[in-house]
Amino acid sequence: MKNTFFLVAFIIAFSSTAYSQKSLSEFAFVVVPQQFEFQKGKDQFRLNTLTRHLFSNAGFNAIYDVEMNNLPRCEGLYAEVIENSSFLSTTVTVVLKDCNQNVVFTSAEGSSKEKAYEKAYQEAIRNAFKSLEVLAVNQGDLESYRERLSKEDAPSAPIQMRPEVKKSQSDEQMASKKLPAYVFKGTTYLLEPNKEGFILYKKESKSGGFSEYGSLTETSREGTYLFVKDGKSHLASFDAENNLIIDGVDEKGKPTQNRYLKIKTE
What keywords is this UniProt entry annotated with (predicted)? Predict the structure, then answer.
């Protein structure tokens, strides 16, 4: 009976949104908020990280609002997760809207009877995404789209650019800067502040020098940074002991936290 109910709900949701299959692919990206309305805090239960990951797996260019930069608002979709829970189960719906707040997609309800809130919400969201995964959305290459926009918006007069950070620096050069050091999985990292936030350097095992590993940019939320590496971004922050915490996903696609331990000095 349970499977029959879900199948009916799935067919209704799919039928009501089948017309938008092509248009979903024509949008350039989908914006995932860092906090849904029903949450009590940013990325509570790692739901926003999970939602972004699931959108990416379903063929969307999923970004947070702080990553939009020069992207045109009306070229994107805006995601919401709506809670419809009852006493016996946790139930959510994934909704996509355009820049004018028009609903262009509503998923089938995803439910879970798990008692633990984190497991329940994560399972419910994964179930709701099943009606998105069958649409075979393909939003194309977002980085190429950004580059095309940058060329179109480039001013005729030259502008002063921020000096490019050296990709690799010797151990002696980095030691002279007396930067805070961190260790993660046996590898040493150094954190250098700049105007936007920080640059994270990784020690190379062969040369012994340090190469640029990623960057941390301040967001509108105090204490929260956007960590960017190889074109991919995750949220980052510092804990009470000044350890660096960078969000990520494990090999099974589950949200996780990578803890870079601060090396204490005398």
Answer: Signal
Residue with tokens 């870079």: 260
pLDDT level of residue 57 (50, 70, 90 thresholds):
very high
pTM score over 0.70? no
User: Do 233 and 219 contact (CB within 8 A), yes or no?
Assistant: no
* Res 222 pLDDT > 60: yes
Q: What is the pLDDT of residue 33?
A: 93
Is the per-residue pLDDT at 252 higher than 80? no
What count of residues does the chain have? 266
20 SS3 class: helix
Half-sphere exposure of 185 (CA within 13 A, CB side): 4
Predicted confidence (pLDDT) per residue in 146-167, tens digit = 888 877 765 544 434 344 444 5
Q: What are phi and psi of 137, to 5 degrees?
A: -70, 140
> Which value, to the nearest 10 degrees, does the dihedral of the CA atoms of residues 47, 52, 56, 62 take?
170
Q: Could you give the count of Cα atoms lying within 13 Å of 179 in the half-sphere of its Cβ?
A: 22
For residue 108, the 8-state DSSP code is: P
CA neighbor of 226 nearest in space, from 198, 203, 254: 198
Strands 225-229 and 187-193: unpaired
Element (H, E) at 32: strand 29-32
CB 56 within 8 A of CB 62: yes
DSSP state of 165: P
Domain ranges of the chain: 2-150, 168-262
Q: Which amino acid is at 89?
A: S
Q: In Å, how far are 27, 42, 51, 183 from 243, measured between CA atoms?
A: 38, 19, 26, 10
